[in-house]
Design a protein that fits this description.
By secondary structure, the chain is α+β, with helices and mostly antiparallel strands. The strands form ten sheets. Strands 4, 5, 6, 7, 12, 22 and 23 form a seven-stranded mixed beta sheet that branches. Strands 15-14-13-26-25-24 form a six-stranded antiparallel beta sheet, with helices on both faces. About 1% of the residues have low confidence. Keywords: Carboxypeptidase, Cell cycle, Cell division, Hydrolase, Membrane, Protease, Transmembrane, Transmembrane helix. One of its GO terms (biological process) is cell division. Its main location: membrane. This is Cell division protein FtsI (Penicillin-binding protein 3).
Amino acid sequence: MKNEVESGQNNKKALINRARLVGWLLFVLAIMVFVKLIRVQYYDTFKGKTWAEYSEKNDLKLDTIPAMRGNIYASDNSLLATSLPYYYVGFDTKVADSAYFYNHIDELASLLAKNFKENTAEGYKSKIMRYRVSKSKRYLRLKSKEITHLERERLKKWPFFAKDRKGGGGKFETIYKRYKPFSPMADRTIGGIDPKSGRGYIGLEASFDKQLEGRPGIGWVEKVEGGLKIPVGDALNVQPAAGRDIYTTLDMNYQERTEIALRRKLLEMDADFGSVIIMEVATGEIKAMANLTKRGPGKYEEVFNYALAGSNDPGSTFKLATMMALLEETHMDPDQVTVNTGDGAMKFRNHIIRDAHRGGFGTITASQVLEKSSNIGIVQLMQRYFANKPDKYLSYLKQFHLTQPTGIHMKGEKPPLIRDRKSKQWSSYSMYFMAHGYEMQMTPLQTLAFYNAVANNGYWVRPMIVREIRNAEEIEDKIPPYVEEKPICSPETIRKVKKMLEGVVNAGLAKHIKSDLYQIAGKTGTARKLINGVYTEGKNYTSFAGYFPADKPKYSCIVIIDNPKSTGADYTRYAGSVAAPVFKEVADRIYAYDVAIQKPVRDSVPEKSEDVKWAGITSDLNVISKSLNMTPAPEESEYAAASLYKKGKTKWNPREVDSRDVPNLQGMSMRDALYLMENKGFRVTFKGSGKVVEQSLPPGSNKSGSKTILLTLQ
């Protein structure tokens, strides 16, 4: 015991000594910076004079020099945002001596007129001469707009800009402009820069502004007419330090496919706005975040991040939370418990609750309540099991992570609004309207995080959009995925609701998005919009939230489309006809792109394919045949395949490659297979080496629509 006490005291003493050492080092560093500033001001010289002497006669002062802002990268290291230097071209007319000035002014004026074309050579010369002899003016900008770095390098060879003896006067005022190579894709998510302050004001630019902005430098500047500040000398007293680089989780391939699908549906429905988020189930990494707002007839732009800050009544996507609370509370078998929904309309207090299906669903099971999205059914179940336990129901919503923001590392997330019984707006029927997604406000991201937890077997994952912060190639901060240790509900409840969500797509309101290649699980949501305190008929907020492939979920996704317009039947404005098809299109494209989640295609090559020994371009094969004294391939087809029979003799068969979406590639070299498929617009991946022995897409019509093919070579 004594040894343990002494050991603890020694550790404490060592920590105190280290803290003192760090404190002294910081103090010494502060003294060094102070001494450097004094030295710069009173002892360092420029052209034989100290800066203090210059400042007495001129309007000189130390000023901050902006640093190069850090870059923002996608998950594959594609550049999403960077700062490019631009320069204003200025001229201090009184720097050069008289002989140099008058010998070179005509040449400079001619170059200005030829390259900048904002004045004639005589006009430029006249203005420069006026500034030269003026007692109050000396500095002017030679071009109204800034120039690029390459143009600056060219100008540095001109008179007055080159380092000529007794010349000088040419100045470059540096500014940085933010450039986004993928713009306008993900514009709102990546964010923007305030042109006046140079600080990020929205999106990732604002959320990670401190890391991106870097440390400004310090240098002497002269304040001239018009309030312009021009640098004095080439050296800076304190060099600026570039900002840190941000590495995001965004995949611009997914982002592009997402925005295309969303924009197409918004145009079709003349909707007000829409948003789509794609998230990786296990990690919470956001792969795409699209937000489009109507800005005029047929015009949609990213002007607001609805995914993060667009709160609304979620509608029937919230029925999943209510069903999970019912299952946790009762442990019922949802295929055995039934409710009678009647003819589709039920009087509840002073309100009429209706199902979307005209004529009602009649008697249905609890599972079918979710599959068919019955408002009446969910309210009846709530009356049966939670009528006297509103606090218990609310505690389940808290347990499901629905009452707090997700905590994503990005500014602007609007917290959810789910009332409790302390709220002044709470009434005796609030719980029943909450049960099917009304009297609350949630963002798409918060809804998606909940569905993602279901896909992740009950373990809630915080959405994340930044993985690393780097200083050049050195990782300074790595942001790991955050997964709750305790599941949001029991494994039995997860198993039951997963089956129900698959039922929504297999037999429920979203059965038209069912895929033959993989299973989608999800839930539709259609909520009337609250306008001036009234839920308005015909104004809908539609959504579809879910995940795929359902058997081994890798991606979760939510689609919201606001106020779709249609002259057809009411159902054409509901989520099943509006949001669900967008989900299907996005999921199909991701499934085609991500080979890892594709199921292997069996029997992908024709019968007796094992006999094929060679295949390729006929002319190439005949060169080989001639060298090996083999029977030549027939010339009538551009491509041919060879097989062996009867004691090693060769049999040639023509092979068609143009008439089919997916040709038979077996026996071909990687070079020929790659040439064929890439010319047909496919993305080719492969494993092994040698000749093609198997292909993930079978020969013939491409029924799957996939544009990615995996080739196995041996």
